[in-house]
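Protocol step 4 of 5: obtain the predicted structure for the target chain.
Materials: sequence only (see below). No template structures provided, no constraints applied. The aim of this step is simply to have a reference model before the mutagenesis design in step 5. Sequence pasted as it appears in the construct record:
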Amino acid sequence: MSPRDDELPIISDDEQEISNRNQQRDNELEANSGCRVCDPRSGVHRFIALVFMCLLGFGSYFCFDNPAALQDDFIKELNLNTTKFAWIYAIYSWPNVVLCFIGGYLIDRVFGIRLGTIIYLFILVVGQLLFATGGILNAYWLMILGRFVFGIGAESLAVAQNNYAVLWFKGKELNMVFGLQLSFARVGSTVNFLVMEPIYGIVKQYYTGHTAIGVVLLLAGTTCIMSFICALILGWMDKRAQRILNRNDNVSGEAAQLKDIFTFKSTFWMVSIICVAYYVAIFPFIALSKVFFEKKFNFEPQQANNITSVVYIISAVSSPLFGFIIDKTGRNVCWIFGAICTTIGAHSLLAFTLLNPYIGMVLMGLSYSMLAASLWPLVALIIPEYQLGTAYGICQSVQNLGLATMAIAAGSIVDSSHGDYTYLELFFITWLSVALISTAVIWMYDKKQKGNLNMSPVQRKEYEDARREILENH
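Step 4 output (structure tokens):
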């Protein structure tokens, strides 16, 4: 005998929709359980996603150092001095003093990580096209505008990459993932230094002067289009994983607000200072190093490019390795301290000795990899996940403020010293000393507060478990 209609449980439309969605999810999980490539729960699927995460920044880093790879040709064909050439790098950084922070905040509150990544890569492509068009037309102002737009997209994209890494890998080889992302980025930079001069030589057979510069930059922009396609694929994978796993990307249920920056811990701000002080001794040096190696060590242009690329080649290989080691050993602050000390040693060798410069550049590449794999994951240990877009945006913004001002200062130092790069090296060593002092402050503060920034993985797990237990009891 069937129950009467009024005895049947009443199911609302929302409950029915949720039930249908859960059933669909269960069916998809069951269907994918035999295929590790398709199953978002599997490590294989996560590492396929990681490949696309890494390729997001390939075009950005390849095109970022296009001017450095062709420094002599830029200065000659576009009639620039060193200061004007340095402005090509400085203008890249200026908009991101503010816009990186805004870009991260927009990811947290407006776009979400998937749409935000696609938008920032589209801006990146537009910027490179403008930059190339400026070269073709010999319009320096248009090239500066192009680099301005390119910078807006590139640095906000880096924030999105960091968010993707934390979303998919927090608690699962995060240091190694940051190392791999850096590795792929440096592959882009390395390929740039190795191929741009030969490509320019081929293009010069068909075009001359500034037109050849523009055409080469246009060809380089195809790497940005490749990265844009990767963003579309990764966005689809992330949306699918969120649906199938019923993933809540904001476990706390809280939303980022601009006023949150006033609650960030002092250790976060010291990390931001290290970002500035360390990276101004790397990127401006690489941008200007081609002529340095030609003058001091009598290298030919392609030889100078090859040695400049050593930093990127070494970091491409060693970044994942250092990330893996740091995942196993922890002690992030110790690794940061060691990285800065060895970078000071590398600059000292290049500035004050005539030793083969490959020694200093290899040392710098190893140090750079060590720092990146140990520094950037610290932000995820200090800041809650729902604020990470904002936090990484602030780090990028502060870093770009330093790069914007220091790139111009570095160019001015070279011009005012009539090409004596010793003063420039002293300038970089001074900034590295600031980074070293900031690291010591983090070390002492974290130890005093009994924090987890310099713990081993076992200690960090015990710390997080105890913290979680206290929160649950309250």
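Step 4 remarks: The chain has one domain: 55-245+257-468. The domain at 55-245+257-468 is CATH 1.20.1250.20 (Growth Hormone; Chain: A;).
Proceed to step 5.
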